[in-house]
Each structure stands twice: as structure tokens, then as C-alpha cells.
Automatic annotation (TrEMBL):
Organism: Granulicella pectinivorans
Matches recorded under InterPro entries: PsdUridine_s_RsuA/RluB/E/F_cat, PsdUridine_synth_cat_dom_sf, PsdUridine_synth_RsuA/RluA, PsdUridine_synth_RsuA/RluB/E/F, PsdUridine_synth_RsuA/RluB_CS, RsuA_PseudoU_synthase, S4_RNA-bd, S4_RNA-bd_sf
NCBIfam families: pseudouridine synthase
UniProt similarity note: Belongs to the pseudouridine synthase RsuA family.
Lineage, opening ranks: Bacteria, Pseudomonadati, Acidobacteriota, Terriglobia, Terriglobales
Stated name of the protein: Pseudouridine synthase
Amino acid sequence: MPNEKLPAKAPAKAVAKPVAKNPAKPEEPKGDRLQKILAQAGIASRRKAEEIILEGRVQVNGTTITDLGTRHDPHKDHIRVDGKLLQGPEKQRYYMLNKPRGYVTTLNDPEKRPTVMQLMANKKSGPHGDQVRLYPVGRLDYLSEGLLLMTNDGELANALSKAAAGVEKTYLVKVSGVPPASALDQIRRGIMIDRGRLDEVRSGRRDRIITAPAKLELVRGGDNPWYELTLTEGRNRQLRKMFEEIGHHVEKIRRIGYGALRLDVPPGEFRELTLGEVMALDRASKGKKVVPKKNLPEHAQLKAPVKKKPTFRKRVPRRP
């Protein structure tokens, strides 16, 4: 029929678009963090490099960077520290130094005392005679001596310095007087000490902590005995504080072991680490167990006490 209406068409159903099962992740920025680049270039350790960035001393392509999260390419970007153009990554170097007493473990000292850097000052890195920019891993105080790691590898230095790594450090310690067995057991189990520096403690700002368990054994007896002590921490003046808590003054400290390393160079001397030793340090920095040498080298042992020979004065005959 001409006037008959046709049925209206049903509205078309919306077709759902397929949802991607694995949506594309935003592309991560390329390059390395600025503090890592500075550490690899031998400017400073990773932690110190972060301070340098936050102080506004670093420019990338003419812009001052203070954000620790930015990434850059040292081969494409122009990076300057204190106005000086950053060179490419240095060849990584690792040394064992036998620090003598009377040296400070800093790059420079306001009191003009000798520094460990002066002991390493004449070290050249290669055939071109370029000097290696080194810094110490951890610290030994002014009166302590022994094994100190020196490197320009800021990443490894930072990893080894973290308490979480639990890297074993072994010391020979001479104390004044003979501590009772019960007091030594306190040190083995963990003892309460002041966390802060001595000047903070004297001013009344005390913050007490318990040290991690330690290995301790007698090496040489006598009125002022020597002990071998192994720690997995490195707190400020920790050894001295531990013995002071049990009423005994520490007379001498000598570090003889660091991870799998054992001190094997004379006082004031140093040597470059082998590839195997560097790999062992890297494993230790990641919390993996490393086995030190069983036989102690000469410079990691106590020398036998020297007995003084009695001296006799010649009798001069009297004049008659």
C-alpha cells in the first residue's frame, strides 16, 4: 500500500574496541643518573656526587641541574662541574694501602695534618702519565693504621660503605688492662654504645645503639693484651667505644682484613688489586659471602715482642 509506513531501523549497536592486554609502558628516559656519571668519571663517590649536584655545582648543556632523578648521556651531553668540562669515564683503579698512624683519611685536612692522599700522590694511571683521582673507601681514624681501600670507582665505594652490605672488617686491637670474660662476651653478642661523635656525647646529646654481633678472640695475652676482632659495621670510632663501655682504653688499632683481602704491604706502601680481588669485593658489596685467605701475610700478623738485652756500664778504674 502506498501510505504504509516502513518499520524504523534499530539503532546500530556500538562495537567495543578491543582492549590491549599489555598496554605499552611509557618509555624510560635513556642514559644514566647524573650522580652515577660523576662517580664513574672519578669526580667523587656516589654519595658525595649527590651533594655536589644538590649544591648547584653541575651544569648540563648550560643548565644547572639540582634534580637527582634526571638522566643524561656523558657521550652526548656537555656536563660541567664547577665550570670544568667533564671528561669521559676514567679507567677504574683499585688499591690496597697500608695506612700508617698519624695520617687522616680525608682528601685535605684543615689542621694541615698528613693525609692518605699524600701517600698516593705520585701514582700515575697509565702510559700517558695522567694522574688517578682516588678517594678512600670508609675511614681509619688518625691514630689507627692498616688496610685502607683506595679507588676511583664511586659505585663500588658507595656499595661497600653501606652497612646493609655487611662486609667483614678484621682488626688487631691492643687494650689497656685485661677485660673479664663476661665483658668480652658482651662485645661478641652486641654492646650498647653512643652513636654520635665524642664531642656530641660530651655535650649531652646522647643517642645509644646496640652494635651487631662480632667475632673476638685473644691473639696475645699479657697486661695489655691483643685481640682479633671482626665487625660487619663501620660506625664512628666504634672499636674504641666498644672497649670503653667495658672500662678499657684502646691503645692501638690495626685493620688487617677487608672482605676477602688481607693486608700484605708494608706501612705507607700500596699495591693495585688483582681482578680476582676486585670481583671478590663486588660480591661482598652485594651481601655475598667471601672466604678470606687462611694464612695471614706477614704484615697482617703481630710481630714477636723484642726482648731488650741488658746493658752493662763499663767500670772505670779510679785513679790512685
